Amino acid sequence: xxxxxxxxxxxxxxxxxxxxxxxxxxxxxxxxxxxxxxxxxxxxxxxxxxxxxxxxxxxxxxxxxxxxxxxxxxxxxxxxxxxxxxxxxxxxxxxxxxxxxxxxxxxxxxxxxxxxxxxxxxxxxxxxxxxxxxxxxxxxxxxxxxxxxxxxxxxxxxxxxxxxxxxxxxxxxxxxxxxxxxxxxxxxxxxxxxxxxxxxxxxxxxxxxxxxxxxxxxxxxxxxxxxxxxxxxxxxxxxxxxxxxxxxxxxxxxxxxxxxxxxxxxxxxxxxxxxxxxxxxxxxxxxxxxxxxxxxxxxxxxxxxxxxxxxxxxxxxxxxxxxxxxxxxxxxxxxxxxxxxxxxxxxxxxxxxxxxxxxxxxxxxxxxxxxxxxxxxxxxxxxxxxxxxxxxxxxxxxxxxxxxxxxxxxxxxxxxxxxxxxxxxxxxxxxxxxxxxxxxxxxxxxxxxxxxxxxxxxxxxxxxxxxxxxxxxxxxxxxxxxxxxxxxxxxxxxxxxxxxxxxxxxxxxxxxxxxxxxxxxxxxxxxxxxxxxxxxxxxxxxxxxxxxxxxxxxxxxxxxxxxxxxxxxxxxxxxxxxxxxxxxxxxxxxxxxxxxxxxxxxxxxxxxxxxxxxxxxxxxxxxxxxxxxxxxx
Length: 633
Hints:
This protein has three domains: about 45-205, no CATH class; about 215-420, no CATH class; about 470-590, Jelly Rolls. It contains four helices and 41 strands. It is mainly beta. About 10% of the residues lie in helices and about 50% in strands. The strands form five sheets. The chain has an eight-stranded antiparallel β-barrel. An eight-stranded antiparallel barrel has the order 20-21-22-23-29-28-27-26. Strands 31, 32, 34, 35, 36, 37 and 39 form a seven-stranded antiparallel β-sheet that branches. The longest helix has about 30 residues, at about 595-625. The protein is elongated and about 145 Å long.
């Protein structure tokens, strides 16, 4: 440990071995640097702003089985809000890290080599740059850019800083959710920090002995400065703005004093009361705020409500209601999403989401407490990419773009979690609403394919089993005049070994402008007759110098399913009087199942999936008919 006196006030200051390169004097707030020529005062910082952080300098913890202690604290201000960055020193390997705390999120980061090229063109929301780490290239997507300055500090710090000078910064994420923070002071090279989001529970901190934050105690009995109504804070250590539920006044609460900002319209009744607790996806959430937002499409303004949900460990989520359709939204790292070059689709988790709408969302009303400095009239450009039952939502401003991943909720899920009253039935079709025909389409389609396969197998089996066999075949010339007994004859008896379908086939030769016919009957051993017949004709002529012909010299007819047994064929020919044909041909044979029957079976099997497909397409057409590109407010 290096001990000495503050060059500014003479108060004792101490540097722990291997810890910070600068220390802030507790007495005069001077920034004291340790050099090879002793201690030197560099500048002076303002008093700390009360941010209600649960941490303090000197607190110890464990991360990744390595012990650390909090040795210092920086406070940065970007013009609208103040946040803390805590300096951590790991005792085992002597390394340093930073724990950033903002809007209920904790990020653990350490300094890292900067990529060779990081042009200013990359310092825009949605910009991309690469960092090579252990020969692995990580693509980063910029989420936020801005300027911030160090306004105060405490304890020992790993590197020097310049209070009061605004530094440019950007925040970016990768596809696995890792975070990059780049900071650049005027005239200096940028510095890169890389890390990830963490929860306090992962850091092994014992915070039970620390006193409650002062602002939290102060806001417990706060009252609206407009109507003097009591304000109930549910997350006072995180709240930046609060809207009075009685008069609609929007108040700043980033300090220990409430300050009137805007007089909003008196809030309308809320479907879910503020402070209501409900469990979704295994987490019990508390409703902190409700926002009414809207967009304009083709001159018509459409509105919706967004409920801010909060849980100490999980952080913030959103519950959105539009036309009684509900969706649950959770933050998503921009680096995990890849936009197509035309911007009309987005890839996330191996799935493509299609652009549904591109609008300008305006904040019309606020009720409750918010963790950012919200104001009536705030406008962001909002994109929604859908793949039901999920959607990707992108909100973009000049300085920031943020992604959320949404899941469509059924009315029963919302009622079970929060019991909103009144609960109206959903109106219309929501962008991420599941197609109600999808399940039936998949189920019926599967069964139709199974049924078609069964029909095919059955058809093949019956065709194999009932191979065609000719049981009787005979060609003859009539031996007597038409209708005489001499023209009729019987076949020799034949055996049908198993139940089969039979068919009679025949033909005639030598017809000229006349007709002929045959009665072909099956006579069973019990003298039961199964009748059938074949008709033939051949006519021709000349009309208007054109020759015409009507002919049928071949014919066939099926018999019904015949039982196994012994049969004879009885043939009785017939023809036009005076025009006997020179020859007849007749045969009876077994036949397999007809392909036409299998075809109609397939048609019937596919009819329901086809109807479901039509219903599915009609639902999707109605959904995408509401796809829109909005107008500026």
